[in-house]
Every structure is written in C-alpha cells, then in structure tokens.
Amino acid sequence: MTTPTTAQLTSGDVRMRFDRFRFALYDGTMAYLGDLDVNQDRPPRVRWDATARLQRTLQSVYIPAGTRADLDTVSWSLQPIMVMLIGDEYPLGVFRWADEDEFEFSWGIARDTSLVDRSTILDQQTMEAVGWGPGASPIVAAVFMANQVVPADWLQYSTSAAVLNAPMSWPPGASRIQIITDLLAQCGFLPPYFDRNGFLQMRPAPDPLVDPDPILWPLGAPVRLKTVARHNTLLDTPNIYVVYDSSAQGGGFRGVYEVPPSAPHRRTRRGFYVPLVKGVSGLPSQADANAQAYALSLSDGRSFRYSTYSGAANPVHDAWSVIEFRGERALETAWDLTCRNGGAMTHTLRQVYGSSGNIA
What are 33-52's pLDDT values in tens digits? Predict the structure, then answer.
C-alpha cells in the first residue's frame, strides 16, 4: 500500500486525512501531564472567528466521570491535536478553561466545559493609564506590552520602521490586548492573535491577491454536498476606508483605501461612497496611514460578499489564512472544526480585492 505524504494529506482534494484526536494536558508551567480522556461521542469543536473578542475557542469538551480527579481548571491548559494517518501531529491551539458544569455520579464527577485560547491572558488584564510619546516605535511598544505577561518564547512578530508622530495614550481600565491592537494598527498590522501552536503573532495584513502560498481548494475538491453558499450584504458594506490623524501634534496624515474597480460595490456602481472612518493618534507616515486603512478593510467584520462551505477537517487552516477556493482568492475569517474522525470543518471566506486600491 502506498503511504501518502504530508503534502498530499493537507491538500484540498483529500476526503479523509486524520486518524484520531488527542488532548494534551499541561500544568501551569506548561509541563506535559499526559493526555486527557475526552468523550468523543460528544465531540469537542475548535472554532476560530476573526470578528470575535476571543478569536479561538474550544467548545463542548465533555470529560467523563472518574477522569483526573485532580484536574485544575483554573491554571492548567489543554491542547487538542489532530493525528494524521501517517502519524504527523498538528496542534489546534492552546486553551485555558473558561466555563465548567459539574455533574456528580457515585463513581466521580463529570465535567462539561468550554475553553478559550491564550488571548484571555491579554484580554482580562486591564491597565493603569499608559502612553507613549512621539518617536516611539509602535512594534517595540507592542512587544514590550505583551512580554510583560507572555513569555518571550511565545512571541513571533515582524519588524516595522514606523514611529509615532504624536503621543498615544489609554485611560485606566483599557485592556492590554486593546492597547497592543492599537499599537500594531499604527504599523498596518493585523490585530494580535495566538496561532494553532500557541504563539502570539504580530504581523502585517496580508494581500491575498499576491500571497505566494494560499491554501488550495480547487474545483472538484471534495466539499460536503449542499454546503457551498454565497452571501451578499448590500446595505452597509464600506467601499472606502479612511484613517486620519486625530491628534493636534501629528503630521496630519490621512490614509485611504478605496476598493478597486473590480469590486462589485465600488463607488461607480453604488453611486456614492459608503465610508468607514477611524481617527487615531500619532500616524507615523503617509505610507503607514495607507497601510493602516488597508488593514482596517481586512479587520472590519463586514464584507460585500462572503462564502461558506464544509469539507474534511484540515489543520493547515489557522488564522487569517489566504484561500484559493475554486479559482478565486479569499481571506478566511472563520472556521469550525469537529474533533472526531470523519468530522466536518466549516469555513467562512471573505471576498477581497488586494492592496492595489490604496490611494494617498
């Protein structure tokens, strides 16, 4: 019998690519404690959603009675792992417990739980008043803010030459993740997120039309029957994104991203602009202002057209993945994976138009 390669198993034309799931359990120091027995007759689901406050969640984790009486749901972590047919393993995130219902039996306590990924570490920590002055590097400030609560070996980030042109500050009570998000926006970066390996990613917004390595779902790839649907949201989807310097001390930069002529909801077809406008302090430069306007077009939850479909679970889908579905490039904004052999994975794709629409 011919053994498939990893590349073949993660391609879009495979109907079954994994053998099983396991759930690795770690203590508060991330020391491996063994695998947790999870009831897979009631399979857990991993979900990633770009529009959610906590983007990656692990839902419906049912732990049978008599399993790990010492389970510490306050400080321990759980990592679902897809085990491929050839033995390769793909983590699907590192999660902390969020909610738990306990059911008592004579032989022990069963638990029905849900978990969220490590972003809760940044989301739940609020700050005293904090700020940076002109000349500060937003990416250095963002890494500093993250590294105060996240170990350095969890961080993966791109560099940026951007520097602030005016002060940025946040009032007491602002969450650490919001401050980092605002700082990264100054560089034209995506909001911060933890990937499937548990690393905090801080990176530029992708241009799906020129991405060299999209995930391919070609025409003819096995998609579940009657699951492909396309949706249009005609009423309030922006066709122009504007970012302006709201400070009195900055350079007065104004970044604009207007959807290009290929977009069906472009101004010449709608007859008018539908703007999304955001004021920020300390825009570093005109180029950074335009990059931030383009990033705003990706992180905005609205899209003129999006598609949904369901197929075999594929672990290479992570966060903000670029997909080529039946010959068209798109940005994946959500997926939902059922952790059971033969389980489905649903996908939500946003139609995108690339960074070529930027104008000064």
Answer: 999 999 888 899 999 999 89
Give 159's contacts (C-beta < 8 A, 6+ positions apart).
139
The amino acid present at 181, given as its one-letter code, is T
What single letter denotes the amino acid at residue 183? Answer: L
- Give me the sign of the Cα torsion angle 282, 284, 290, 296: negative
Which residues is 278 bridged to in the sheet?
243
- 173-228 confidence digits (pLDDT tens): 889 999 999 999 888 899 999 999 999 999 998 888 888 889 988 777 778 888 99
Angle among Cα 120, 124, 129 to the nearest 5 degrees reads: 135
Q: Tell me the Ramachandran region of residue 66: left when phi exceeds 0, alpha when psi lies from -120 to 50, beta otherwise.
A: left
Contacts of 175 (CB under 8 A, 6+ apart): 122, 123, 124, 125, 126, 127
Q: How far is CA 351 from CA 133, 225, 328, in A?
A: 38, 22, 9
Q: Other C-beta atoms within 10 Å of 212: how many? A: 5
Measured N-to-C along each axis, helices 176-185 and 138-147 cross at an angle, to the nearest 10 degrees, of: 160
Whole-angstrom distance, CA of residue 14 vs CA of residue 314: 9
3-state secondary structure the chain: CCCCCHHHHCCCCCCCCEEEEEEEEECCCCCEEEECCCCCCCCCEEEEECCCCCCEEEEEEEECCCCCCCCCCCCCEEEEEEEECCCCEEECCCEEEEEEEEEEECCEEEEEEEEEECHHHHHCCECCCEEECCCCCHHHHHHHHHHCCCCHHHEEECCCCCCCCCCEEECCCCEHHHHHHHHHHCCCECCCEECCCCCEEECECCCCCCCCCCEEECCCCCECCCCCEEEECCCCCCCEEEEEECCCCCCCCEEEEECCCCCCCCHHHHCCCCEEEEEECCCCCHHHHHHHHHHHHHHCCCCCEEEEEEEECCCCCCCCCEEEECCEEEEEEEEEEECCCCCEEEEEEEECCCHHHEEC
User: Within a 10 A sphere around the Cβ of 54, how many other Cβ atoms?
Assistant: 18
pTM of the predicted model as reported, rounded to 2 decimal places? 0.86
